[in-house]
Each structure stands twice: as structure tokens, then as C-alpha cells.
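lol ok so funny story. i was supposed to be doing the assay writeup but got distracted and ended up predicting the structure for this chain instead. priorities right. anyway since i did it might as well share w the group, maybe its usefull for someone
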Amino acid sequence: MSQPDSSNCTMTFSLRIVCNLLYVAGFCALQSCRVTSSVSTLEPDFYSIRSMNQPELRNEKHYVIDSGDTLQLLVKQIDKRQYVAPSTYKYWTFRRSEIDVDVFTLPFKIRPAQGLLPAQLNSNFNAALYVGRRVDLYNYRWQSVTPTFGVRQLRSRGFGYGFFAGIGSTSMTDFVTRSPIGIEYEGVVLDAGIATIYDARVFNVGLAFGIDYLADANRQHWIYQQKPWFGVLFGLNLN
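and the output, tada:
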């Protein structure tokens, strides 16, 4: 009876660890979005408003001015301001979307198995420019200080989705080519793909799915040429 291949067992165990780390990172990113914003008032802007008690508010965007305890809604059709008390807007969710531009670094990529070569975890340099749609959700909450007094807090959650393109490097050896190339070097690759991101307040974190294009003549021998990979990305918001 044949014994299991120890290298395959090690790789399977390593992939399980990586998948668990990705799960934990994604969960932490989602949790970190549910934090109190550093500002206590909404920025004056157009928002979509979601309310269970007033579904008609969803029909169009409203310009919202936060005056402290009271919100002002500017009604364009009749050129009038509507004042909303905290007892009403505390059940509302304010939604704002915009174009988002970020610069990301990809600390690692996971490449699926190719032929006899098992799945690979690559940590070469990679940087990318991301352009997509960002959505922010805001809610007001009141933290009780005394039985008769509470402090208003603005809670926000942000996420986005879009496309990215960038540049990176990859280790070129005979192990990752279909025929021997006779040398070992760091090849230049061009990245492209799609990504989803979450606003973790201090930084942005997300998941990426893309392909690589080797920029030199050995691209025809490279087993990962235009093959899909996925990874985690981190970056700063440039807006």
C-alpha cells in the first residue's frame, strides 16, 4: 500500500492555513468597518435615504445638511427645507456613492496548480492602481451617558468594487517554464483584474482576482502567463 506524498500533504496543509488567514483577514476587515466615524456630523452632500417608515425617500437623492441635533433636507422640486428631528432620522440609513481611486500593494498572490507544480504562494513586489465605485453607509446612534442624556455618534461603513492594473515581479526559473531557459532572474509582469475593497479606517483592505502578463520574450514559456490568481491587497485612499 503506497504512502501519501509528504510534499503534497505539506502543501495542502499550507493552503488550508492561507485560506484560514484570508477568512480571518476578511472577517476583521468587515468588523473594522463597523466603527464610529472620526466626525460626528454628515458632510453636506446628496444622499440616498433608506427608511422602513418612509419608503418614499428612496425615490431620489436628497441634499442633507447636518445642523447638530437636527437634519435639514433640501427638497429641490419645491425649493424648501424640511427639518427632521432625531426621533425620526435615528432609524435612517444614509447612502453615498462616488468614484474611488486608490494605489494598492499586493503582499502576496496565490497561484493555482499548473501541471505537476502544486499551488504557489508568491510574495514578490506588486503595486497597482485601482479605479472603481465606492459606497458609504452612515447611521446615527446614541450612547447613553445618564438615564436622561445620550451622546450622538455617527457610524460609517465603506466598501467598493472595481478594476485594477499595475506592475510587479516574478521569479523566473526552469521550474515555472515549459522548457529550460538556462537562467534565473526576476521578471517584470503587468497585472490586471478586478477587486473588492473595504474601508478599515486607517487603511483599505480587499481581495483581488487577476492575471499576469510577463513583459519579456520568455512569456511563451512561462506557465503562469495570463493564468488567474487571487490575493489580498492593502492601500491608501487618494480621494
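Residues 6-36+96-237 form one domain. Residues 161 and 196 are 4 Å apart (CA to CA).
back to the writeup now i swear
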